[in-house]
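Same chain as my last thread, 171 residues:
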Amino acid sequence: MKALVFFLMSTLSLAAMAYDGTVNITGSIYASSCDVDSNSQTKNIRIGDFAANSFSSVGDVQGNALLSITLNNCTAEIAGGAITFSGDADTDNTTLLALSDTSGGGNMASGVGVEVLDKDGGQIPLNSQSKPFALSEGDNTLTFYLRYMATKIPVTAGNASSVMYFDLSYQ
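reply #2:
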């Protein structure tokens, strides 16, 4: 009987062994936000078709395609915001978005990246927050421009597509 009690006690003590752990929880509670209009959640923007030899030196640019993002139902508590455009950076100029084979067809252009500009024509470096902009109560349309910029010479012809994401922060 003593052996049975000893066996049961040793089994129970093994089950009582445990490790302590820590769970760190982060987040925020915000008063309100804006809704990104459904037509702005996924956009297809065509910058244009340009000859490879139209880029004669690093820094040459072509195109000026409008990118508008509409925010709906912004509340009065939101005075402004900032936007961060993210994606794969060009290896020769990390402020630009790299080209990517979005169609899977290969035959990619090289020597160019996609530059993002604010409404005043100032560059918004990729993966960096824009300058703050004002938002008013109700609906707002944010205006940006996209263009190709030469990152190395020679630029080679091919598909010049890419994928970019955006994140809004409110102030």
